[in-house]
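step 4 of 6: structure.
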Amino acid sequence: MRIAAKGLIDRTKPVTFTFDGKSYSGFRGDTLASALMANGVRLVGRSFKYHRPRGILTAGPEEPNAMVEVLDGASQSPNTRATVQEIYDGLAAQSQNRWPSLRYDLLSVNDLAAPFLSAGFYYKTFMWPRAFWEGIYEPLIRRAAGLGRLKPQNETASYEKAFAFCDLLVIGSGPAGLMAALTAARAGADVILAEQDSVMGGRLLSDDGTLGMPWVDATLAELRALPNVRLMARTTVVGAYDQGTYAALERVGLHLPAAPHLPRECFWRIVAGQSILATGALERPIAFDNNDRPGIMLASAALTYLNRFGVVPGQKVTLFANNDHARQAVRQLMAAGVQVAAILDSRADASTVEDCPVYLSAAVTDTQGRHGLTEISGTHADGAFKIDTDCLLMSGGWNPLVNIACHQNARPIWREDIAAFVPHSGMVPGLTAAGAANGAFSTHAALREGADAAVAALTDLGRTATAPDLPQAEDAPYRLQPLWAVPGKGRAWLDFANDVTVKDVKLAAQEGYTSVEHMKRYTTQGMAPDQGKNSNVSALAVLADATGRGIAETGTTTFRAPFTPVSIGAMGAGGQGAGFAPQRYMTSDQASRDRGAPMIEAGLWYRPSYFPKPGETTWRQSCDREVLMVRSAVGVADVSTLGKIDIQGPDAARFLDFVYTNTFSTLPVGRVRYGLMLREDGFVLDDGTTARLGDTHYLMTTTTAAAGQVMRHLDFVHQAYCADWQVRFISVTESWAQFAVAGPMAKMLLNALLDQRIDDFPFMTYGEVSVEGVKARLFRISFSGEEGYEIAVPTAYGEALFRDLLAKAETLGGGAYGMEALNVMRIEKGFITHAEIHGRITAFDIGMAKMVASKKDCIGKAASQRPGLMGPDREQLVGLRPVTKTEIGAGAHLFNLGDKVERVNDQGYVTSVCWSPTMESYLGLAFLKDGRARHGQRVRLVDHMRKTDVLCEVTDPVFLDPEGAKLRA
Amino acid sequence: MPNLIAKSALFARTPLTLSGTTLAEAQVGQTTSVAAFAGKLPEVTAALGGFPAPNTVLGNLIWTGPEQVFVLGQTPDLTGLAAVTDQSGGWAALRLSGPMAADTLMRLYPLDLRASHFPKNTCARAPLGHMQSILIAEEAGFLILIFRSMARTAWHEIETALQALTARAAAI
């Protein structure tokens, strides 16, 4: 029910929204919870396990009951706290975890079965048969007990990630936070003030006390005007990490209708020199029988609904409390004209002077009202009572919000005088708690601690600051007598979100789960979306009582980030779809796409798979044609993706000798050599060719896949082992576009384009040439087995050269070839790729043991000579050719004829296969035990996935032109 | 004159302006990496007429690593003193200028890019999202050097960040 002239809502801006399909109206500034309350809606959800009717318990992000699904176009956000969600025109929310409707939920039958559903029920009941757990029990239980649902679709909404930096991060904008920010801001420090709420001011917005909105407004106006202050509303700091880094989640568009490019949320990483924890405190409920009905809420929440939103939660209110502070709520409700039936104070010695009946030594022992509170009953100093009431406020005292301070695994300390855990210094380096978060509950104390903490933080940053004069504010002492649970026979809720009662905690203790961590896991207390914010301290107090220990001795469970739920979409902002990784495009990209080539990913690169011609309907037709084209005429392929590293210096040769297994210091200028590189553990890292461009100048090429790895390896070797050598290197992969020109007509094609003809340009030669007026590098190397060249031009000219090469190649009956044909041709020649050198392969395995030079040392050499890395037991590279023309597949395993096909008889595996149009056969490369000694023998190739079993002949891995006559032509 | 047509990484891409902030491809021309050999920094410094301190730009010299700079324009003969490697064309250049430039890039770079902390002539080798880059603070914005092959992705990332900021400003 709305109260006139109260609240910070904008009554000139009505807002229409729906809840469970029904239309309601509220005002801008309302949360979904306050707007529903204003409309008299009390029942907003069903509980997790028993499907109990639930209302609104709190007015903040800790809400355990009022969780809804928000429908937003294509997406559906489950477990949205109605106390946080602001309303906007068109907001559509629905209750969750009920069927068929919120009011008539069939699964509320669970509530009747409650005696059987106590803590540990699942562990005890669904033990047998074992196989039933995953397939039957768990899905059933999950369907019955649960929270909101996601739509089973990809997230399409936009999210944002951002970074921020400051001298001082102030977390929370209540009296302590505002004062800290003001103190630091006036001293000229770079300040970020983060507030989870949509409006700054914290409890000062709710408390209509001595320090009202004028001070808040004036302070915020001053902060806003300062260039060194950043106010971040709707931003919840959710975690404390190393080096003063904090994670924070900002609700950017969640309070607005969706708009193009408007992020729903932003995930911030804030790096602060110092930080102040001014997160305040949370009021705690009291456990008594049936304390979970709609209409039962925290006293402080009622205060917030009244002063912040101009809404009252009931017509006839009662209060059950163990402290003085809670009476503020009923006093202000009475001042606003609400009838208060009684104050029920659990203490015997509290004041009875109020404008309503006050009963001491009181205990509420039961409540009535299925879908909303109608009556409470219990005892007080004068005996038993029954009171008609539609709203019971409860207050069991306050818990400082210590969570962030505990995120690096420090534990808070117990303060007996306030019956609460408080942080201590040094829990998170650079973080100081102030105000209610530090157990200082009066407004005056919060202001003072905020100012003092800021002065101290700035001193640590080497700045001077003085505390401003503190405004007048209440400084009432905090008087309370601990009351955790009222004894009773029924169920008294501790954890509303996960339906954990006092009985469950006691049962845990009785069954031996006496450690607080064990109790938590046995009962699931504290494991719901609110992460026990409302229940942890009370639950461990009950556990302490049940086990005869003190609360300090019992201790807390671990506080972990995030403080409030964070959507995965926010953490993964920018990573949807193609945003997952950068896309790298070659200069020839458009030319290949123009020819209809399907592009495939090679690492981050996009490379043409094949170039279909009219009439070709399968990739194989195109691939076969391209292979035969290269073998008979000429083909052109963009090989720019291969890593290129420019290495210079007087010690460049020595450096290459050190990183390659073979020798490069003896390579003449103008020549190219194939090199093999090992990791430090002796296994093959990469291979490629290196050209000597000058006396002290080399150009290394790497495979596409390992370009980054090799660069990192070279950097490591240089910095770790030979930093004093005169050698420097830098990647030039992106500086040169490089094209393979291969086939019997390769030279003819090049001569049609080069400014000077090449005639004598032997295999493994390098030279500088000029192509259409552009300086270029020419290498005579071959990955196809044909007479092959690679021509490199500065990247800017790449596309032009590729198109010109293709035009002239087509005149010769040649053309472009793609990755498929490239792969077929290298298999025909037995050339390895990372399909073969996959990380568990030694130089010996691929038949290159002799390439590990005996006369010099190199990285990985010693390790490669360890026992077990050479010899007949090793699986060695071989060729495979099916005895009949049968398709074979990579990944298949090899077995000896006559052996049973089982793991222990495994002889090796297939790494690469192709249909060779040249040899008119399927060909495979494989690793086979003692393979080099078995050429000519037969093995069984069994492919368990493709269900094939093929008899193959073991051959040399080089199928085509083993003498290399063609490539040397 | 070459007969081959030269194309920049984002050839003919129209600049994008949102919230008064403009993203455009820039042309930095001849770019050369100069990496001094061990012990040769004094001679290299003399030949270049100076050497920028780490993370700074000095005239046409951009610091890119320990005893390493990128030289924009002509490079003197440094034979025997430094590894000199042509990097022209290997890097695409994007310029982002205007009032939202720093805020936009602070969505993508884990750096404090406010003018008070990253003033003109500051530079950093830092990741733009998942891409390594060289970031240079200029008078009215930033110059970003990025691997040429990744230019389209870089453009897209910056465009997306700028769009989000523009939508935020409109949503208040």
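step 5 of 6: annotate
 - The radius of gyration of chain B is 17 Å.
 - The CA atoms of residues 47 and 76 of chain B lie 7 Å apart.
step 6 of 6: archive
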